Amino acid sequence: MKQENAGLRGPGFYNRVMEQREATLELLRSYYQFFNEGRFEEMLSLLTDDVVHDINQGASERGIEAFRTFSRRMERCYRETLTELQLFVSDDGTRAAAEFLVQGTYLGTDEGLPEASGQTYALPAGAFFDIPQGKISRVTMYYNLNDWLRQVRAF
Question: For residue 25, what are the domain limits?
Fold first, then answer.
């Protein structure tokens, strides 16, 4: 029995794990690069068709079309650049987290939120990901909505 299990962690095991972890890091670097460049279709190409998007302090949406609709609304209402990006990936590459600073401009009034008039904001944020087979199947976002509201109302 001991010998059978030993094969699971043989010489190639470490290399496969490191390759999966590196592939996930590269996937997330591309995801955030596409976001920062406004290349939303390329960003969406990194998601599974049935992706789950847990919107900050909101509902969960499922599917690439729901994510596309969300991205279009974001593009209409906000211009954001994510800086100070830090990525954290599980050893097997199937789970990840990101921490970053959102530097944005509120361009167009988003439903249920204060009126937009070009207010700028800087907001720490984070995201959590499931990446079961090389594509992102879950994106969970978090930022402090009250902090954002305070910043955009201060103008």
Answer: 2-153
Contacts 24+ apart (CB under 8 A), 37-43: 38/75, 40/68, 40/71, 40/72, 40/75, 43/71
The count of structural domains within the chain is: 1
Closest among 145, 87, 72, 154 to 113, alpha carbons compared: 145
- Decide if 24 contacts 132 (C-beta within 8 A): no
**Residue ranges in the chain modelled with pLDDT below 50:** 1-7
Assess contact for 139 and 53: CB atoms under 8 A: yes
CATH of the domain at 147: 3.10.450.50
Number of Cβ atoms within 10 Å of the Cβ of 14: 10
- With a threshold of 0.70, does the pTM exceed it? yes
What six digits make up the tokens of 31?
A: 């995801």
pLDDT of residue 78: 97
d(CA 130, CA 24): 10
Which one, of 95, 86, 105, lies nearest residue 32 by Cα? 86
Q: What is the CA radius of gyration of the chain?
A: 18
